[in-house]
Amino acid sequence: ETKWFPMKIYDSSSGTPTPAEYTPLAKAEKPYNICVLFPHMKDSFWVAVAYGIATQAATSNVNMNLYEAGGYENLPKQLSQFDDCMAAKADAIIVGAISGAGLMKKFEEAKAKGIPVVGVTNPLPPNALPAANYVDFVAMGEVTGEGLLAQSKPDEELNIVTFPGPAGSGWAESFNEGFKKAVAKNPKAKILGEKFGDSGVAVQLQLIQDALQAYPSMNVIWGSAPTAEAAIGAVAEAGRTDIKVISSYENQAMLDALNRGDILAFATQYPVGEGAIAIDQAIRLIEKKPVTALVQPVAAVIDKTTVPKLQMDLVLAPASWSPVYSVKAK
Amino acid sequence: MNAHASSTNAASLAARPGITASGRSLLGRIGFLPALLILVVVGMSAVDPQFYGPINILNILRNASFLTIVACGQALVIIAGGFDLSVGAVVALASVVTAKTMGMLAAAFPGNDALVIAGGVAAGLGSGAAVGLVNGLCVARLKVSGFVVTLGTMSATAGVALMITSGIPVYGMPQSFVREFGRAQFFGLPTAIYVALIVLLVMVFVQRRTLFGRYVYAIGGNADAAIVSGVGIRRHLVGTYVLSGVLAALAGILLTAQVGSGQASFGGDRMMLQSIAAAVIGGVSLRGGVGRVEIVAVSALFLTILGNALNLLHIDSRLQPVFLGVIMVAAVALDELGRRRKARV
Amino acid sequence: MSDVSPSLPSPADRRSALSALLWQAALPIALIMLLLGFAAVDSAVLTPGNLVNIAQQASYLALFAMAQTVVILTRGFDLALGPTVSMVSVGAALAMAAGVAGGQEPGTVLLMGLAAGFALGAACGVFNGVVVAYLGVSPFVATLGSYNIAIGVATTISAGRPVQGVPDLFSQLLYGGSLFGVPAAIVIAVLVGIGLHLLLTRTVYGRSLYVIGTNPRAAAVAGLPVKRLLVATYMLCSSLAALGALMMTARTGSGEPNLGGSLSLQAIAAAVVGGTSLAGGRGGVGTAVVGALFVTILSNGMNLARIDGYVQMVVLGAIVIAGVVLDRLRLERR
Amino acid sequence: MNTSAEIQQAAPGAAPLLELKGISKRFTGVRALDHVDLDVRAGELHVLFGENGAGKSTLINVISGTFPPDEGSFRFDGEEIRHLSPQRARAIGISPVFQEFSLVPSLTVEENLFLGREISAGGVLRAGAMRKKARALIDELGFDLDPGRRVDDLSRAHQQMAEIAKALLGKVRLLILDEPTASLTERETGRLFELIAKLKAQGVGLIYVSHRMREIRALADRVTVLRDGRHIRTLDAARVTDGELVELMTGRRIDVLFPAIPHAPAEVAVDVEGLTLADGSVKDVNFHARAGEITGIAGLVGCGKSELVRAIYGLEPVVAGTVRINGTPYDAPAPRASLKRGVAYFPANRVAEGLALSRPIRENASMTALDLPAVARFGLLRQGSERSLVGAAMERLKLRPPNIERPAGALSGGNRQKVMLGRALTRDLSVFLFDEPSVGIDVGAKLEVYEFMKQLVEAGAAVIVVSSELPEVLALSNRLYVMHHGRIAAELAGPEKTEQNVLASFFKEHLATEAA
Ligand SMILES: Nc1ncnc2c1ncn2[C@@H]1O[C@H](COP(=O)(O)OP(=O)(O)OP(=O)(O)O)[C@@H](O)[C@H]1O
Ligand SMILES: Nc1ncnc2c1ncn2[C@@H]1O[C@H](COP(=O)(O)OP(=O)(O)OP(=O)(O)O)[C@@H](O)[C@H]1O
Ligand SMILES: [Mg+2]
Ligand SMILES: [Mg+2]
Predict the structure, then answer these.
(1) The domain containing residue D380 runs over which residues?
(2) pLDDT tens profile A27-46
């Protein structure tokens, strides 16, 4: 039904990413019960993953139940939800991990119980699971760094302040690390400061306002999607049209802002596709069919020039779609 | 006998030159906080000229405005002997409701911005009042502690806000709302500052000059005494929670106007903890009956400046909470110790 | 008059005695009804596997609720409990990782982890206790201060990343292991619960705690060392939090800088729903455990009954209020 | 019981101001009032008399609209009244002065006076008008009270004045006074009595509750005796003796109000030299108390007499002077150390400083003995031993009801005081500091407290009694100090120890300053 497949991916099962195409099974043999765990559903990024999951679950005709932990600060809740999924005798579990390392014990338990687990979107320690699909956040950060360098003139001074997201979340740190690594290749690019903070627009806004004062020479703001959203207003208000804004991930606001020319670029990892692939990987594991152990979507930096070619329904859920937490097989 | 009485009067007052009274009027009312605030301001100005740049000052004042508005309502609830943990969630709910309503009205009445804005603001404030009403009624009627009731409504309110938006920011507000309300400036100052000043002045007036303000102190100071004195305590309790809800909603609307979208991520635990911290650091007693909103405003300003200063000083953002925590405790401890010593002299 | 001589119980009296008894057990009864209600929706709720699952999940929350309860008994609370958990988790994991890297014996590594965890927890408790008792700062501000400090420390020493290298022995001991088939977490929580119950009811310390919470001035006039007891209590709270943090670290197998997250309020909520009074002097191990079970069963049941996340938040809010209303009614019947 | 004082039905025609018939009030498990009748006439002072817990305060709460009665009829000024609320009661001129004050501690006296009756226009307060009216009222009453001070800065006596002033604000037709003199000293009491006379002359009806026989004698027109929530009898005060009243109240005979105490002064147990407190409430005080005698301390409100004993026990910071207990210097007093040295203190405010009301009596009584091996060993409580220790103490003090597992909050005032006294019996003590030992407790309980002091003195302890009730300190003490403005104004013993002399030293200084 969807026009997503075959989808271009990297097959990283062997350790080195090799370009490949992914095509899911037509239908599951039985209406399995698949349990899905998300860190939260508070932004359009995770809604996009959910969209992919729900759509593919319906297509494959399986039962799906999705639980969200309410935020990255709720690892204990995700652990309990994982237990609940196992207790409910799910046929497979798909996890958007709050902390890959923190879930390792659960993965071992699931393995012992014979319940296949698929990792989606958030990176996991190597070989943690029989199947997973995510981009490496460090690599993703690098992609955005390279995108920035590609968009700037060779002798342009880049005075960057990064706003990675909440300290201690894991993902913010990884994004930041990758970005710094990429940017370090250009001697003209300097990281002036790193400002961690909750990934709400209000908090980020305050951080940016302060940074505008603390770093008068700042001309690049790199951060999460809420950072970029807050930055647009703050930068306009401060009259600093020279400041470039780049987002490390995608949401509806980023797309609109890019179209209006308010931001330079955002990165995408095609979350809808990730969700859909995760369902298929889970079915393959249940049915003991061959599965690509590590799928990596081809992450990309989207700017004004690439946005027309973008396959939108792999990036965001349609505006008309409202999240569903369960899908019943027919 | 009369002669005796009046001479004793003079004698005893002279013999006890109002020890505790003077301690209360000066330190009890104001405390160390303004002094500390001035210290931070002077210190920062000396260290970093960026600090007193006009833009920075505007930022500080605007951010302090949001906090002040929420903290004023919070302070009132605490003075009446309660606790409002739901303010953060209300900020988010009001933001979302305002944005959604405006979006719907804008679709129904295109071009009629005044109507759209008025409708959106009313809906936002109404959602805050509704949560406040639930809080107040539960506390006053079911006689459950404010802490638990608002803990419950905090969870429920946040849930409703997320249900409305599914976590996705709500757009579609009239541009004039954002341009002329959120990001507009009058005489060089952003709207939020005026709103906060008006709220503050009204609240000062309410506290000092109105029956409601007086009864709030009485209820928090000794609810039984208020009852036997003929004060209808239920209405006033409900009133404090409704006011707190409305003020939190107001802050949510202002934030929405500034950011340009309705967000369920506004507020949260952070706003709730900060508003209580501002109230408590500003001398509002968690035991009830004591506190002045003007000092609470000073304390909100203090907390905002502290955060700004740590950023301007380029302190590692992972270490910033450590500084914040230490200074917060030190400020209150100093205040407490100073008060104790003064009361003894 | 309340002091009338006892008369023979009439049938009406006996009936009211029965209803009084039912009211006393209101919350546990509600709990069982809740469980049966969920079982009606989904038969998986009452399977032995899920019951063990519930008990195991509730063990952690019960430990944290017990930690909050001891300070709530003194009219305080500990907002810093969650960040303390994060800090302990990271600190203990770092210590163990260092031990492993230094080629220490597994047993030594384990001890290093436990020692680091409890030391950090106790340090938090001493800080809170001293600030509250000796500097006269309200528990709210004092623990909000240490809340921030602990967050800062946890993210700084871990660089914001999960700390790996927690040895298997540690996870085995505090999580994977079991006694007569009962998982380690439940065994530990039960033992600690019994110990704490004895501490609260059978020792001078416990007795003093209730007196301080009921009337601090009377306690001081009666010569109880109020300040020292407060420090000890905050230390006890943070040490229990540290134990919970170590158990959760064993459960995750890594030190997590965000492990505590929103635990502070959750633990307070559990304690209070169970009947611990924020006005001090009322509550104990029983109230903490009942509250923790209540919250856990509710969320497990809603998960198994496939209730949406946001709806769960609304239901949870309503139930928290209902639980406390029930508790108030129960007290009135007494 | 059949006294000649039995009252005939009120003369027809003169309808009483207040007429209650068959009032009942039940609290959970307690029948506080059981079909009580009461009538009060205009211009009459009607005393309610009864033991602690007899239901006096409950009746007053019903009359002032705080509690609705479960049954019974209520007539005021000939009119049947239903659904009385506190506001309504005040509006029709019923003004109560409560035993547990209806004051908000964090507000000023003036704010408290007007609480619930503020002068306002459209919800906005008119501060000037209120200030003027408050000033005028306080001046008229002749109270030494500053309307701008916060109530929690005031002594209990001044709070009492504020409470009385609050009741007299606005029109008053029925004034209710629940133990108004419990913490007033002679002078304020005198002022209050003058005021009462004036109000009676104006035709105001008064209900007055007191445990002090002297006052009942001086003021009462009629007396209604309550026992166990039931109306026992209404009597004409002029035709009844104290003995009869007490017997009606308690159901048994009590012959003496103060026991004869055989003093045998021995060595000095407490010796205070040049004591000065940080807040200046006690200045350069020299004072001693001997074992085997009761040493009294009297003085006007705020004279520092409470602070003196509190400082010895370690509750007030000392800046200068020395305290010696049994001859050894005692530096930096603190409650725990005091108890270890054998010094015990019994606070005036038993609710705020004495008892943990929701905890069992047993725990309250053993609170000061937790360091003793009889109660705990190695930090572990010995509950059996504790139970028998407290049980024995309470038996000796005749606690009613004798169940030591009930919460202390369920006890009447006198029995609460007994729980406090019980602490003295759980450990070895040699010095006993009593602050207002009989405040708010009934005649029978008072006698038991005095008997207890007598036993202590006989056993060779040093007892120090601080009291605002002059007859009490005069009757109990062997030697009596009079304090004034934080200093010792006089030391009286033997035949010098008379009411005249005490009053003279109260006012000596004023006379001196007036002369100057
Ligand atoms: N609010 C209440 N709830 C439950 N019981 C109460 C309440 N108020 C009073 N009682 C009980 O009612 C009875 C009468 O109490 P009340 O206060 O009227 O006595 P009283 O005569 O004023 O005694 P006292 O001389 O000590 O002031 C007592 O047994 C008391 O414990
Ligand atoms: N004229 C006055 N107006 C208001 N407050 C006063 C006045 N005189 C003294 N006080 C207050 O009274 C308090 C001291 O009184 P307190 O009753 O404790 O002393 P005391 O000597 O123990 O008297 P008593 O034992 O009779 O109560 C002080 O806090 C003082 O500020
Ligand atoms: Mg009474
Ligand atoms: Mg006194």
Answers:
(1) 355-420
(2) 999 999 999 999 998 888 99
